[in-house]
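Lecture 7 notes: from sequence to structure.
We start with the chain below.
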Amino acid sequence: EAYRLREAGVATIVDVRTQPEWELVGHVAGTPLIEWPREGNRFALAAFLDELRASFDPSQALLLICRSGVRSHFAAQLAAHAGFGSVYNVLAGFEGEHGAGNGWRNAGLPCVEGQ
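Predicted structure tokens for the same chain:
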């Protein structure tokens, strides 16, 4: 579903993993990276929202993706509470849930393989 929405130009996928994950594991081609903070303190979360606001209009539809859908779930919740009206979590993420064989890459969707 995330792939179809992106291809139709309806939504933008935003990766919230770390830079090393994005580079070494791989990523959805053309997807910007805005790291979800590992610290989780209010300053780090505010900086995450500031970067999201600087990159996207809050009315724009966003699909947040991480490794398995956990970080992107929390990122989408925070963004929604901060005024992003159409922000969603990509379930199962890029690599999928551990041992489940799901996720973007396991579905054979287009991606840039890690280095």
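Points to note: DSSP finds four helices and five strands in the chain. Strands lie at 12-15, 26-27, 62-65, 87-89, 112-113.
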